[in-house]
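Morning!

As promised:
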Amino acid sequence: MRPRHLLIGNWKMNLGPKEARPFARELKAKACATSRTDVWVTPPTASLEAVASELSGTPIAVGAQNVHWANAGAFTGETSPLFLADLGVKFSLVGHSERRTLFGETSEQVAQRTKNALSAGLTAVVCIGETEAERTSQQTEAVLLEQLTPVLDVVDANSAVRVIVAYEPVWAIGTGKVASLQEIQDAHRFIISTWNSRKLSRPAVVLYGGSVNPGNFSEILRLPEVDGALVGGASIKIDQWLSLISIAEETPVGQ
Ligand code: PGA
């Protein structure tokens, strides 16, 4: 359980530098004075510099959507965590389901990306979640374990404080079909108990992601196992994003 809610906006491949800069300026004006919510954003790589420079000196952290397992070399199209750190980037998503399903990233690669992000001093937001077919065939916990285990194998007592898990059922991402409170609670409890079995230096931090919007966020955030949310679609519409921040601000932490 974190002492503050955490709301991460995953912009995906939206808001190029020309749109990202005014969007970041608006966030700077309207989303910095929060008392119980940390607000983080992950612009696409091409917009990182613009957003990081607009938001530098503010409490809003800027992250990448992926990070490579090596620091330099012949890896066309990839981004080193050292380059991200140079830009003022503080964290990176790893293992987002779009990376796993559209780009074939394996759980082992996700773990290697996580390991290198942590070595470079970044925080890693590790995304895990089952497909609809896996849920229907009662494979949810097996899938979560398969995705989480290699990551936990590379985390040590020092780096555990910089690991966040995002539970994102694949069938709930971008579909408008949010998981039920029971499904969220069960998955988060499973993730927390898996984390606890490793005797790491601090408790698990687990976000929910998948069709979060201002209509469903409050009840999700009230679940005691939920530390915040990873939000796609609603994070690039400024009104919806500001509403989500207000909802988090109205929700006591640790409910
Ligand atoms: P969504 O995306 O909020 O649009 O469902 C969430 C995500 O992919 O992280």
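The first helix runs from residue 17 to 30.

Hope this helps with the figure draft.
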